[in-house]
Design a protein that fits this description.
Layout: E1 7-13, H1 17-25, H2 27-33, E2 39-45, E3 52-59, E4 62-74, E5 78-87, E6 93-94, E7 105-115, E8 118-127, H3 132-141, H4 146-167
Antiparallel strand pairs: 1-8, 2-3, 3-4, 4-5, 5-6, 5-7, 7-8
Length: 168
């Protein structure tokens, strides 16, 4: 099989690594930026290998449920998880109702690297145990994935400014 497509997003945040890590791992802060423009409800957040993050994104009367299973947690350097794109109300993995060929599971890696007083975050998404149709769907969407992440990252910038003002 050929090499899997991957989505990579690098971003430097103007804050120390511990604060950026906190924005990614504190459920109260995470719910503010994950899924910008929608209401994000975190039903469970167990930050340890094997722990789960059960997430609901509410858009008016509609909800989208998703499940993350943490594989590696190395504070404040690395998060690795399997992101189950969509789930039913029992948190069981299902096909994405809006994109049935979207991979059911993505391997997500988020690395946090110190750059002086700033932090470089590298997010990587790769289809995991995906069918050829799911891989093709993912590959076709890679070019448009930045908008959602960049919107969330803009909110992280605000959160980091608030946290630094509190600590300053």
């Amino acid at each position: 099989m050929s090499e899997l497509p991957e989505y990579v997003l690098d971003r430097v945040f103007n804050a120390p690594r511990e604060l950026v890590w906190r924005a990614w791992t504190d459920p109260e802060l995470l719910s503010r930026w994950y899924g910008p423009g929608v209401e994000t409800i975190i039903h469970e957040f167990d930050l340890r290998p094997g722990g789960m993050w059960l997430n609901e994104m509410k858009m008016g009367e509609n909800s989208m449920l998703s499940k993350v299973v943490f594989k590696e947690v190395t504070p404040p350097e690395l998060l690795v998880w399997h992101h189950h794109s969509s789930t039913d109300s029992n948190w069981e993995t299902v096909s994405n109702p809006k994109m049935p060929d979207w991979p059911k599971i993505l391997l997500t890696t988020v690395a946090f690297e110190e750059e002086g007083t700033k932090t470089k975050v590298r997010l990587t998404w790769v289809p995991f145990e995906a069918s050829e149709d799911e891989i093709a769907c993912f590959a076709g969407a890679v070019g448009n994935m930045g908008k959602g992440w960049e919107g969330g990252y803009a909110v992280i910038d605000q959160i980091l400014s608030e946290l630094q003002a509190q600590n300053g």
